[in-house]
Amino acid sequence: MRTIFTAALLIAALPASAETLIVGNKGENTVSFVDLVSGREQARSASGAQPHEVALSPDGARAAVVNYGAAAIDVYGVADGKRLATWDIAPNSRPHGLIWLADGRLLATAEASKTLVVIDGADGRVLQSIATEADGSHMVAVHPTRPRAYTANMKSGNASVIDLESGRTVAHLPAGREAEGIAITPDGTQLWISSRGSNEIHVYDTATDTLVRRIETGPFPLRIAISPDGKHAVTSELQAGALGVYSVETGTLERSIPVSGKAEAMQVTILFRPDGERLYVAETGTNTVAEVEWPSGKVLRRIPAGEDGDGLGWSPVGAE
């Protein structure tokens, strides 16, 4: 099963000016579409209740945004920011983590129903509802070549390993208190889980589901992302307003990047641009998204967003 994102291929084929940042503004039920060349918001569209995570279609033309306060997913055209559809996923409810696969399907965690929902990306039909057998299934990661998905389960303090072919949860990986962030290396060999309640990372070998290492982190690492080159894992540490940068090879902390340096910024979602030259950091407390140069760590600018802008998506399609 091929699940690798296609944005990295599209970036080379489109003009440099064609980039859009999509932001789910959970505090006002809107979605922002920002032209990344100018930093200007080109559109702000209404959404369902509590828009959180964002996922882009394989061609980058559509953005899906979960309604965390409901049982639906909104779909928008990136070029004009208009809402194209709202997909009802009931009885699954409180969708949060979201990935759009290269084969056209979407995967969404649904916290209240304790499920991973498989959705047809063409018409929004629910194809499968797979029990995670855990509480608080919040974020999701997918193996790049195998039919495996992994959910970070905050209340259970573990990650579910889900076989997408059989539609079953086949294992649970202990991960500390309030396991929330989850990411997989580009080669698919390691799964990284960050736990905000115990300030730690658990790294697992995906071939054997065995623990490789446990790493202590800075305060409240509620998100984790792997750099596109697979060399670094980056945590979003809310209480420090900083990014922790770890070597994927050794697990050692290489440095800490102060973004705001303040807990009041309420730093949450982090997103790498596919070429690895930029990292976007949502600051819900200030209604901004910090654009960070990578690997220097320099904050280049702050992009205004809506109230409590949290979920982030990047598209090679320009907003009109």
From TrEMBL:
InterPro entries given in the database record: Haem_d1_sf, Host-pathogen_enzymatic-act, Lactonase_7-beta_prop, WD40/YVTN_repeat-like_dom_sf
Presence of keyword Chaperone: no
Signal peptide span: 1-18
Pfam families recorded: Lactonase
Key words of the record: Signal
Domain of life: Bacteria
Gene3D superfamilies: YVTN repeat-like/Quinoprotein amine dehydrogenase
Protein name: YVTN family beta-propeller protein
